[in-house]
């Protein structure tokens, strides 16, 4: 498909540019080489006793070697590695990390640097937030998904079995450091996974930003850093208004109610291929855009455009009829649910959102039928 071929070609090299820092709730998001200067200045000013770099096997191999020469510190640094993948995002992994931190002498003046993708930032933030009732941590995301989504907003947590992000806290890092040079070693499917969240930010908040991706042939990816910066800015603007997700922050869950259920189902089903987060969310956005159309919140033309763009880039997942009921059953575990009612964040036209929207199961089944058509 043209869209997916184009994405593969475009995301090969990114050029780091000097980007303005983005102020967030009690911290800031810094970009490029300047971020390392600010990181070193922060470490010197806080007089930390020790630094622990939390990384999975992939980021420890490909990303930590880039980070270490840029750290101008004279205090001990320990690298703590754990297995890559969503299956590591558990309380059991946390127990192992808490134990190892204790054995290595971590104290309340230690600093944790979470270097990796969304699993690392989610898990590492939770480990730091709960160790000795909370120690400082900094996110250094190394995947596109983690840069534009997981590292921003203060959500930290782990999965409960196959249920996504059921255990966690909201606690902000000291800073987030965005270095898009890490993306040079990222597989193309991981780049597409992050692109899903960027597309979501346009759909829920900025119609003009969404429009930049309508013709991938015309996108100037030499300025890719600017697209990343704007995606982060959009998420941060929403989070700043509603840090604890009682109102507008629910907009960020567009595509995630069904997307998380799909992701969990594929994770627990032995005959299914485990999905990347963005792959599941892309399907969830198509399905929830259909719900928006059926509720007359988006026009048929807008829905057709959304479906075409997302399926052109991501293709379609293969759903059997027997998959639908187990996926629908998983919706009851979604974190947005209140008083037993399943809550959706649906589009109110492209660039706007309506939260706390309901849908009956029959309409959800119709969404899957249309997705497959």
UniProtKB/TrEMBL annotation:
One of its GO terms (biological process) is chorismate biosynthetic process. Its cofactor is NAD(+); Co(2+); Zn(2+). Residues 80-192 form the 3-dehydroquinate synthase N-terminal domain. Its EC number is 4.2.3.4. Residues 194-337 form the 3-dehydroquinate synthase C-terminal domain. SUPFAM superfamilies: Dehydroquinate synthase-like. GO terms for cellular component: cytoplasm. It comes from the Bacteria. GO terms for molecular function: 3-dehydroquinate synthase activity; metal ion binding; nucleotide binding. Keywords: Cobalt, Lyase, Metal-binding, NAD, Nucleotide-binding, Zinc. Catalyzes the conversion of 3-deoxy-D-arabino-heptulosonate 7-phosphate (DAHP) to dehydroquinate (DHQ). NCBIfam families: aroB. This is 3-dehydroquinate synthase.
């Amino acid at each position: 498909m043209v869209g997916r071929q184009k994405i593969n070609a475009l995301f090969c090299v990114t050029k780091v540019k000097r980007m303005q820092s983005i102020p967030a709730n009690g911290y800031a998001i810094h970009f490029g080489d300047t971020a390392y200067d600010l990181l070193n200045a922060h470490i010197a000013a806080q007089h930390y006793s020790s630094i622990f770099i939390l990384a999975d096997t992939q980021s420890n191999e490909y990303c930590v070697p880039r980070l270490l020469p840029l750290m101008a510190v004279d205090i001990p640094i320990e690298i703590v590695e754990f297995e890559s993948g969503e299956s590591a995002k558990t309380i059991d992994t946390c127990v192992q990390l808490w134990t190892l931190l204790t054995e290595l002498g971590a104290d309340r003046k230690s600093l944790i640097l979470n270097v990796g993708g969304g699993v690392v930032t989610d898990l590492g933030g939770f480990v730091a937030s709960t160790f000795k009732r909370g120690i400082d941590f900094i996110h250094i995301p190394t995947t596109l998904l983690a840069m534009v989504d997981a590292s921003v907003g203060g959500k930290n947590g782990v999965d409960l079995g196959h249920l996504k992000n059921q255990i966690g806290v909201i606690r902000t890092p000291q800073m987030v450091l965005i270095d898009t040079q890490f993306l040079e070693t990222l597989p193309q499917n991981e780049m597409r996974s992050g692109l899903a969240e960027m597309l979501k930010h346009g759909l829920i908040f900025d119609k003009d930003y969404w429009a930049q991706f309508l013709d991938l042939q015309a996108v100037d990816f030499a300025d890719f850093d600017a697209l990343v910066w704007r995606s982060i800015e959009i998420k941060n603007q929403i989070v700043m208004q509603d840090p604890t997700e009682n109102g507008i922050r629910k907009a960020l869950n567009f595509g995630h109610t069904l997307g998380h259920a799909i992701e969990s189902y594929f994770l627990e089903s032995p005959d299914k291929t485990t999905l990347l987060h963005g792959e599941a969310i892309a399907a969830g956005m198509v399905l929830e855009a259909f719900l928006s159309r059926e509720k007359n919140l988006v026009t048929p033309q807008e829905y057709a455009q959304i479906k075409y763009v997302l399926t052109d880039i991501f293709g379609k997942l293969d759903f059997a009829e027997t998959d639908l009921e187990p996926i629908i059953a998983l919706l009851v575990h979604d974190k947005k649910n209140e008083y037993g009612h399943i809550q959706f964040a649906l589009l109110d036209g492209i660039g706007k959102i309506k939260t706390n929207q309901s849908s009956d199961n029959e309409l959800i089944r119709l969404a899957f039928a249309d997705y497959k058509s």
